[in-house]
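ok here's the first one, seq then struct tokens
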Amino acid sequence: MKTSNKTALLFMLYLAQGLPFGFQATALPVLLRERGISLAAIGFAGALALPWFLKPLWAPLIDRYWSARIGRRRSWIIPLQALMVLTILAAVPVAAHGAVIPLLVCIFLMNLFAATQDIAVDGLAVDILGNDELGPGNAAQVAGYKTGMVFGGGILVCLSARTGWEGLFLMMAILAALPLVVILRHKETDDQTDITDKVPPKPADFIKIMLTALRSPGAIYFLLFIATYKMGESMIDVMFKPFLVDNGFTAHQIGLWVGTWGMAASLIGSVVGGWLAVRFSIINALFIAAFFRLFPLVAELWLSTIVPTASQVVGVTVAEHFFGGILTTALFAYMMSRVDKRIGATHYTVLAAIEVMGKSPGSFFSGFIAERIGYTGLFSIGVAISVLILLLYFPLRRGEEQPLTG
């Protein structure tokens, strides 16, 4: 199977996963507020994304059970994709009648099916991508998911001004059905006979493989890096928008700069990150991206010391998203290069969960810190953390030739 075909397949599958999360993150608060829902209740609606945080709990099921006739990953992807489409379609009449609770149930199920499918798609990526394809493969992953978020939370919301919310869900269902057509045409066993012919791992195998990975040389530095590589960035990102509001910029301006131009720059950065991972070794590409990522963070720190102009904010925002896209793609390619294919879906899902949980504390406590030491103090801490993380390059570089799986 050609690399271009693999990346196209992964792009479409990850796009479908980004649709419900993009809708929940951007459009749902607007929809709920229009229905007169309180701000406190809208805040708690973020719990609908809980499946994305809890998915490591059932990830072993994806590696353990499948149909050899259908394919190791297709056995899960096809029914889950179909269930996602049906759930989105079920939201059409619900939205038309304005029933809030049934709508929230539908969105929770969308996230559940998308998060579980994500485990299988990650496993598929681990199975079919060769070492020289990890860069473009993970660029397709990041760009596909972000494109889905743009459609689910941006483009379709704009179109809903004419079609109504029920029209939004109908268009979302059509987009979610396209990857189903693609995965039905994919012949998984042609690419993975060495994987699918093996006996499914037993419960004890999961524990043994993960413990072996944890004890391998350099494993602690590896886990420390993926848990902290965006901690400083997340501290700055969350408070950068309130900083702009406090400096007189409107919600419309911030939405345009961050949600449109920033996302476009991030997508371009994701592609560049995939190219870097091909042009250089993955570990070198990762730290090149991490180094250049410092510049927009320092620029945001600089903006906090002056009265920023619109052109300065736009330039820094575009640079921040561009280099952030490069770094994310390089990190995901690096993670995938360290995964044991015998339990590829589970192993990658655990690493991805560590990545998400690692950057969460920075965002959770950013407001608390900013209230006490100001934006400049907070941004300074974020930059300092990002500089210190670069020091992990040296132990990781020494252990590059020793894979995590021992």
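and now the second one, same deal
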Amino acid sequence: MSTVSENGQGFFGRIMRSASYKKYILPGLISQSVVIAGGYGTGRELVEYFANYGSLGGILGMVLVTTTLWSLVFALSYEFARTFKVYDYRSFFKELLGPGWVLYEACYIVLLLIVLGVVGATSGSIFMQSFGMPPLAGAGLFLAGVATLTFFGSYVIEVVMSWWSYLLYAVFFIFLLVGISQVGGEISANLAAGDIKEGWLLGGFKYAFYNLGTFPAILFALNYIESRKEAVISGIMTSIITILPGVFLYLVIIGFYPGILDVEVPVYTILGQIAPWLLPIFMVVLFGTMIETGAGFIHAVNERINSWLVDRNGKGLTRANRGALGGFMALIGLGVASFGLIGLIARGYGTISWGFFILHGVALFTIGVYKIWKKNASTQA
């Protein structure tokens, strides 16, 4: 038995250490880990940006708009990072925007606070509603988890996000199967009704670009990509890996449409009705993902600060510095949580998406394309 176990661990270990895994799968798993808590973990985000535009309108926004935009932007972003060897957001956006990179940083910090507020509010809610414990207990564990992951840095974050993503995928797939078994008729009927409301295109657009604020959390893992073909394939894979659990969840949400539209935490309400036994498992997995999301965002800030310190003094952040900064930023985010989950998602995310559209999307497909072309032309000359 020991030999089988060791061989199994060795097999999966070899997969995770393989070049193909690191190039094509790892960026997507990191993206999905960071997006989920602020992007669809509670279900509220999917209601706000997709279900509000009709049962079928939401599918169109999610599949045609968000997934396509993510594929294009991730692919070109990965190629830009590969071309200029920039693997933290300070270096990436200084190369892309010049002095204007500080505008991106301002948007990123605002998004960081909003996301930490969302995951902080949700963490407290999970412990209170699922386990009858005070919200402060969830907040304390959230702080400790974020500080621990940021303390250990890139390698541990890669490993934790990879393995937790597998667990999360399994739980979301079970959630989908249970949903189909319980409300499959309602899902089919609501989709067949073809309800499409005006604004689905804009909803998918906003969702795509506010979640592109998670891109800095992926940058540290892109140094494995060695060619343009690898960058494009990896970008498309990142989009698919990131959106798929959201599609699973959205389909179940549609089984409760339109009554679910005004519910603050749709996932909790749905599971309470169709699978109370799955609720604590889902909430534990979601809570772990909250920690991953917070750690991913903060790790990007740590990498940015580390890059600045190395340029200035030749010495970067220590582990203790990283952990302390992680805990401090998470604590600030918990303060932001007092503004309420629905307000943060509806107004905060919707507004900040325009900043990322201009400073990342528009800049990348104009300035970025030109700089990549110019760099390649000078190399071939």
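notes on #2: Residues 341 and 378 are 50 Å apart (CA to CA). The domain at 22-376 is CATH 1.20.1740.10 (Amino acid/polyamine transporter I).
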